[in-house]
Specification:
The chain is α+β, with helices and mostly antiparallel strands. It has 2 helices and 11 strands; from the N terminus they run E-E-H-H-E-E-E-E-E-E-E-E-E. The structure holds fe (iii) ion.
């Protein structure tokens, strides 16, 4: 209990040890909240870090980020038959290999399956008045193309992929 002399009497107020302790605990509480949330927030911000798009051409950006479609029969890999690996143009993840590429006649690079099933992910795409299965890079989320159930036996699948989403690396020792 504190008593302070005032002009017309005394001002009496309570400042107990308990009150001091509570105030101290509140301060400590916020210090601890800060210590524990800062790393969590920092890590979450790092996880959500956007991939580097600075090296992309306008077409590559439109296809991978806005799900645009490049023109058929007028793209880098639709008619490519070299041995090698097709990686994601953004994150470099291995997506397809040339031994699963085939001539579908559609004008885009076509594959019967990805190199690893976990390399891609799928999403229902209802744009343009159609229901299609969109194929995306599992690692960075880039739009790659679509999967259609009209591929060759035995798998029966056609991965119709934009060249603009891919970067081809020739097999070692080949051009
Ligand atoms: Fe990627």
């Amino acid at each position: 209990l504190n008593i302070e002399p005032q002009a017309h009497g005394y001002r009496i107020f309570l400042r107990s040890n308990l009150q001091k302790t509570i105030c101290g605990m509140k301060t400590l509480h916020w210090v601890f909240v800060g210590i524990f949330t800062c790393p969590v927030l920092t890590q979450s911000a790092m996880c959500q870090k956007k991939p580097d798009l600075s090296h992309l051409t306008p077409l590559q950006r439109a296809v991978t980020q806005e799900a645009a479609t490049e023109p058929p029969f007028n793209n880098a890999y639709w008619n490519k038959h070299d041995d090698g690996t097709y990686r994601c143009v953004i994150c470099g993840a291995v997506l397809f290999k040339s031994d699963r590429k085939y001539d579908s006649g559609c004008g885009w690079p076509s594959f019967t399956k990805p190199e690893e099933e976990a390399a891609v992910k799928y999403r229902v795409d209802t744009s343009h008045g159609m229901v299609r299965e969109e194929v995306l890079c599992a690692k960075c989320g880039a739009h790659l193309g679509h999967r259609f159930p009209d591929g060759p036996a035995p798998l029966g699948q056609r991965y119709c992929i934009n060249s603009a989403s891919l970067k081809f690396s020739p097999k070692e020792g080949k051009k």
